[in-house]
Automatic annotation (TrEMBL):
It is an enzyme of class 3 (hydrolase). GO terms for cellular component: axon; plasma membrane. Its main location: membrane. SUPFAM superfamilies: Fibronectin type III, Immunoglobulin. It holds the Pfam family I-set. Residues 1-17 form the signal peptide. Its EC number is 3.1.3.48. This is Neural cell adhesion molecule L1-like protein. GO terms for molecular function: cell-cell adhesion mediator activity; protein tyrosine phosphatase activity. Keywords: Cell adhesion, Cell membrane, Disulfide bond, Extracellular matrix, Glycoprotein, Hydrolase, Immunoglobulin domain, Membrane, Protein phosphatase, Receptor, Repeat, Secreted, Signal, Transmembrane, Transmembrane helix.
Length: 1237
């Protein structure tokens, strides 16, 4: 057998000049030969009728002898283009052209071309001609969407189906883009998702725009209004710090996709797109995983972490993927089962053959794919079953012709198909006997590229096959060696051509019927080589893309060298560059105003008349399925019908599901609503319907890109009436008055009536008291039961009925009649002072018999009676805190220190407040004198007024002086503070890295009282080093606690083990100020039971600060002076001692505490009381929000007059110090520089 390359010759009985001599080489002259039809050109499998194209060719070209005749089929039926005068036909061709006359719908369908002559018939693959429709949004009225703040919102776009690609934008009417982030984002389906709505999301002009670049069309959906209702809309305190906490926090749940798992099927080479959009508060974060594997390196995470994409998927990408949405309250997950399938691919394509008469012929055809393709055989375009042959046996992947004869000559077709595509191959099978006939011309001259491959032809037509040999004029014997190969078709192939291969070659051929020979000449040239190839590009639509290509070539072809460009294997013609947007110059291709039609593979071809080099670059320009067709309703069964359809073109992205929608003509004509969804591999669905409704249906496909345009609707289908299928839901039982019970329910929607005359039967009875039901039939969706006892349980049921019967047996729900005001107040109200601004209130719960309703919680009201500095009582503003739920204690924060308060508590239910308890009076303790903020040149001091002013307080006397580690002291500076209400002062222009001592005295008209003191060191602006840790010690008296620590830039919150009395906070920055809060989780408010400001110790090198002062001349001179002064002082002291002189011990002790006290300050363990150390609330408002306190500490000895008593915390306590109560203690450990205060 000999593989046929182009033609089959068949000698006729009229041949002349043929020699029968088998021993000599003679020329053979053949009269005209016959040839089986062979398809040479055909249209692609899908042809889209773009509206801007002038015409659409249906191409079918073939060769053969006699010339083939052409005929077509459309949708499986014979179609004659010559019968339609609107079609443009071409002579001697099967091609016809459909002109774009504007109405192309009738030409939509699946076409196939047949090319026939008397020897056989060749066929093309089926060509689907798709006529798209102009996309439009349906005209509809969209009601405003009202939502509580913090709840999720989905704005549906439902873009119309159109020519891909589809681009969706969300903007306002003013064309301002909607900002998207972790909380607000657009899904693959075009919907706009809000994980939690905020007040700022309220707008009346959310618009979805769908852009179709292929047809230069943008359509806009009607504007949508979103109204976000704030939970504090009826509360004047919405601007308070607690406003953000009023939003109900919740764990995440997934808005897209639904359910726990889903399946995704893709074709190999497609793009995988997995999407997870979650709602919750705080806004959830999305994480992607692949079960039992790591995510592929080609994974791209987009859309703020909500979209996983993998381009060009293959078998390795299949498996289970998981998305996980998390926030502090929990998580939600979804599993994706991804499978990758393949369209058919040839394993063994049927080949054309020439065989001897009487031989056995084997025709193989096998293909692979997922799922496994099915093989269909045809002979001359007809199913093989319709062309019987006694000597032929068919198998799935092969055909055997036993003892074949000339009548078995034909065109055999093999078609392999699965749900992802179809392959078609034609094989020309000729059965005959013939002596060798060399079809290649004598004396051909070949040019080869050095280092490449050259093939010199010696095409032989013979049966049985001929033996072919080649030799070179300057060699003996046939050509041998690894570089020379004689192929079965007689051609000589020379690999890695060399200059020495130039010369004359001879081809000899021989079989049992005769011999023949030809000669050929070979010339070797330098190769053409591209040295600057085009690169892969990704460009934005509307911009300019530029591809470069430069090459070197043989000098003999300098006048014939050219560089041409191809797009998707179609040459870009130079005479069309201006109109098409292509500009080519000096090997550079520019594409102006890039559109999606420009996307594709661009090939640079550098060629001479004898060789060429190519290089390619992929241009990617950064759609949705076509509408299903032929919708048919069948199997009518009253309230059930089967809907069938033919899926539309999926645009290389498999349809994952179909959405079936309905529209009814009575209640909401023109409004389409979703009925159900079915998997993308289904073409039908059984629809369960409501009664007494006149339906029509439509179907739209969904793929990974988005939802396609819906199909044309079906004809109307009216269902018979029936009794209701369901009863009302969401039954609510409320009592707005003490002796009434309001029953409300969600009515059945009109489509759920199932027939005319809908009514509701309301039945109720007292629980465990009445046996018989009291029944009422109403048409509205509410009912009021009067004369009921106050707040007693009832059993209620509601059943629907219409003119055709009752609905199903209703469920019984329990509710309570109307509530009344509580009649009792909490007893045993007690107040425990926690610190100078916080108290804990406890009480005895009100008995449930006195509540007369559902317990709402307790309200605490308090007011300030007076300042303890002023004996005159004044009733301050009343404050109230509400604590929902059943509880017997609460914390009241924000009190003014050193004040007397009065407090009452009451319970409440839905009806209102109960009576208040007896008023309880309590007093808050005073504050302290503290250093609260230390900078390089400034120090901030805070204090509280004295407990006993001994007269009218007129102001304060503030004194300070420098006390570095020398015996010398700085000049005592004085500040006169004349405002008695001042509780904070900022000292300016201090020296950096210096220790100061501060004294404060309260003053009256008579004079100033005893002083308190503090010490602190100004900061050097030290650099950060290793992170220290802090240990916080506390009393373990609360069941559940949290420790919080924050700076200006961050916040840290950690749980505290309530069984421990300390907690270590790690990872702190050196030289940084932190505010530590200790709070308990079982308090409704987030008030700290302890708060303190600390600063971690900074490792400061004076030399590094001053730039290596030890090498400076002024420093060396200063050290010399210091040494001289020290020597003089020692001499003076020695003389003074011998004279019995003394120096002031009192002054030195004031400046430097004794070693025992100093040791306490230098130790890293510091214990202090929250009562002592927390600044007064009244002074906090003037402090900077960015506290950077340096280490500060007070001496524990008395620096003032020895006869004046004051506590070590530096406050004006006097005898009151004995009454102070230490509630919480705290210790700070590590590399901090905080001292006991």
């Amino acid at each position: 057998m000999l593989k046929l390359l182009s033609v089959f010759c068949l000698l006729s009985s009229c041949c002349h000049g043929y020699s029968s001599c088998r021993s000599c080489v003679v020329p053979v002259v053949c009269c005209p030969v016959e040839q089986l039809p062979t398809i040479t050109e055909a249209s692609p499998s899908s042809l889209i009728a773009f509206p801007f194209d002038e015409s659409f060719p249906m191409t079918c070209e073939a060769k053969g002898n006699p010339k083939p005749e052409f005929w077509w089929t459309k949708n499986g039926e014979e179609f004659d283009p010559y019968q339609d005068p609107r079609l443009i036909k071409e002579k001697n061709s099967g091609t016809f052209v459909i002109p774009n006359t504007g109405n192309l719908t009738e030409y939509q369908g699946t076409y196939r071309c047949y090319a026939s002559n008397k020897l056989g018939t060749a066929i093309t693959e089926e060509v689907e001609f798709v006529v798209p429709h102009v996309p439009k949004f349906p005209k509809e009225k969209i009601d405003p969407i009202e939502v509580e703040e913090g709840q999720p919102v989905i704005l549906e776009c439902n873009p119309p189906k159109g020519i891909p690609p589809l681009q969706i934008y969300w903007m306002t009417i003013g064309l301002q883009h909607i900002e998207q982030d972790d909380r607000v984002s657009m899904g693959l389906n075009g919907d706009l998702f809000f994980s939690n709505a905020l007040e700022k999301d309220s707008h009346r002009d959310y618009c979805c725009f769908a852009a179709f670049p292929k047809i230069r069309t943008i359509v806009q959906k009607n504007a949508m209004s979103v109204i976000v209702k704030s939970k504090n809309s009826n509360n004047d305190s919405s601007s308070s710090p607690g406003h953000a906490n009023s939003i109900m926090e919740r764990k995440p749940s997934l808005l897209m996709p639904s359910g726990v798992k889903s399946e995704t099927q893709l074709v190999k080479g497609d793009e995988l797109l997995l999407e997870c959009i979650a709602e919750g508060f705080p806004t959830p974060m999305i994480e992607w995983l692949k079960i039992d594997h790591r995510l592929p390196d080609r994974v791209t995470i987009e859309n703020h972490g909500k979209l996983l994409s993998i381009d060009q998927v293959d078998e390795d990408d299949k498996g289970k993927y998981m998305c996980k949405a998390t926030n502090i309250h929990g998580m939600a997950v979804h599993y994706f089962d991804v499978s990758v399938e393949e369209p058919p691919q040839w394993v063994s394509e049927p080949e054309s053959q020439l065989s001897m008469i009487g031989s056995d012929v084997l025709i193989n055809c096998s293909a692979t794919g997922t799922p496994q393709p099915t093989i269909q055989w045809m002979v001359n375009g007809k199913p093989i079953e319709e062309v019987p042959a006694s000597n032929r046996k068919e198998f799935d992947d092969k055909i055997v012709l036993h003892k074949a004869n000339s009548t078995d000559s034909a065109v055999y077709q093999c078609e392999a198909s699965n749900r992802h595509g179809t392959l078609l191959a034609n094989a020309n099978i000729m059965i005959m006997n013939l002596p060798p006939m060399i079809l290649t011309d004598e004396g051909l001259e070949y040019s080869a590229v050095e280092g490449k491959v050259i093939v010199m032809h010696c095409k032989v037509f013979s049966s049985p096959p001929s033996a072919v040999t080649w030799n070179k004029e300057d060699s003996t014997g046939s050509l041998e060696g690894p570089r020379f190969t004689v192929h079965q078709n007689g051609s000589l192939e020379i690999y890695n051509v060399e200059k020495e291969d130039m010369g004359q070659y001879t081809c000899y051929t021989k079989n049992t019927e005769g011999t023949s020979a030809i000669t050929a000449l070979l010339d070797v040239k330098d190769p053409t080589k591209i040295f600057q190839a085009p690169e892969d590009l990704q460009v934005l639509i509307g911009t300019t893309a530029q591809l470069s290509c430069l090459a070197v070539y043989d000098n003999s072809f300098s006048g014939d060298f050219e560089i041409v460009w191809e797009k998707d294997d179609m040459e870009i013609a130079l005479n069309h560059t201006e109109n098409s947007g292509y500009f080519i110059e000096d090997g550079i291709l520019q594409i102006v105003n890039v559109s999606h039609r420009d996307q594709g593979m661009y090939k640079c071809v550098a060629r001479t008349p004898m060789d060429q080099d190519t290089a390619s670059g992929l241009l990617m320009v950064l759609d949705i399925p076509h509408a299903p067709e032929n919708l048919v309703l069948s199997e009518h069964k009253g309230r059930s019908v089967k809907l069938k359809w033919i899926p539309g073109e999926d645009h290389n992205s498999s349809t994952t599901e179909f959405i079936i929608e309905y529209e009814e003509s009575q209640w909401e004509p023109g409004t389409w609503r979703e009925l159900q969804r079915v998997p993308g591999n289904h073409g039908s669905a059984v629809l369960k319907l409501y009664g007494h409704v006149n339906y029509r249906f439509r179907v739209s496909g969904v793929n990974t890109v988005g939802r396609g345009r819906p199909s044309e609707p079906t004809e109307r289908y009216k269902t018979p009436p029936a009794a209701p299928d369901k009863n009302p839901e969401n039954i609510k039982i409320e009592g707005h008055l003490p002796h009434e019970m309001d029953i409300n329910w969600e009515p059945l929607s009109p489509i759920e009536h199932n027939g005319p005359g809908l009514e509701y039967k309301v039945s109720y009875k007292r629980q465990h008291v009445e046996e018989d039901w009291q029944e009422h039939v109403v048409k509205r969706h509410s009912f009021v039961v009067k004369d009921t006892p106050t707040f007693v349980p009832y059993e209620i049921r509601i059943q629907a009925r219409n003119n055709h019967g009752w609905g199903p047996e209703p469920k019984v729900v329990t509710g309570y009649s109307g509530e009344d005001f509580p009649s009792a107040a909490p007893d045993d109200v007690a107040v425990e002072v926690m610190n100078n601004s916080l108290v804990k209130v406890s009480w005895m719960r009100v008995h449930k018999d006195k509540l007369h309703g559902h317990l709402g919680g307790y309200r605490i009201s308090w007011w300030r009676l007076r300042s303890l500095l002023d004996s005159k009582k004044t009733h301050g503003d009343k404050h109230t805190l509400t604590f929902p739920g059943d509880r017997n204690h609460a914390m009241v924060p924000g009190l003014t220190p050193f004040s007397e308060y009065s407090l009452i508590i009451m319970t409440f239910n839905r009806r209102g407040n109960g009576p208040g308890s007896h008023a309880v009076n309590f007093k808050t303790p005073e504050g302290v004198f503290r250093v609260t903020d230390v900078q390089k040149h400034t120090v901030t001091l805070t204090w509280a007024p004295p407990l006993e002013a001994n007269g009218v307080l007129t102001g304060y006397l503030l004194e300070y002086q420098l006390i570095n580690d020398t015996e010398e002291v700085g000049v005592l500076q004085t500040v006169d503070i004349s405002n008695p209400d001042t509780t904070m002062w900022v000292l300016q222009n201090l020296e950096a890295i210096s220790r100061y001592k501060f004294y404060l005295r309260p003053c009256t008209r008579v004079g100033c009282g005893p002083r308190v003191s503090k010490e602190s060191t100004t900061t050097p602006e030290a650099r950060k080093s290793h992170r220290p840790s802090t240990t916080v010690s506390h009393m373990a008296k609360f069941t559940r606690s949290n420790i919080g620590i924050h700076t200006t830039n961050c916040n840290i919150s950690e749980a505290v083990n309530s069984s421990n009395t300390f907690h270590v906070i790690e990872g702190l920055e050196l030289g940084t100020v932190y505010t530590v809060h200790l709070m308990t989780n079982n308090w409704v408010d987030n008030t700290s039971i302890f708060e303190y400001v600390i600063r971690t110790r900074a490792k400061v090198s004076l030399a590094s600060i001053h730039g290596g002062i030890s090498t400076q001349g002024w420093f060396i001179g200063l050290m010399c002076v210091a040494a001289l002064l020290t020597l003089m002082v020692l001499i003076a002291c020695f003389v003074n001692r011998n004279k019995g002189g003394k120096y002031s011990v009192k002054e030195k002790e004031d400046l430097h505490p004794d070693l025992e006290s100093q040791g306490i300050h230098d130790d890293t363990f510091c214990e202090y009381s929250d009562n002592d150390e927390k600044p007064l609330k009244g002074s906090q408002h003037s402090l900077s929000g960015q506290i950077k306190a340096e280490d500060s500490g007070d001496s524990l000895v008395d620096y003032g007059d020895e006869d004046i008593q004051f506590n070590e915390d530096g406050s004006f306590i006097g005898e009151y110090a004995g009454r102070k109560e230490k509630k919480v203690s705290m210790e700070v450990k590590g590399t901090t520089n905080q001292s006991t205060a």
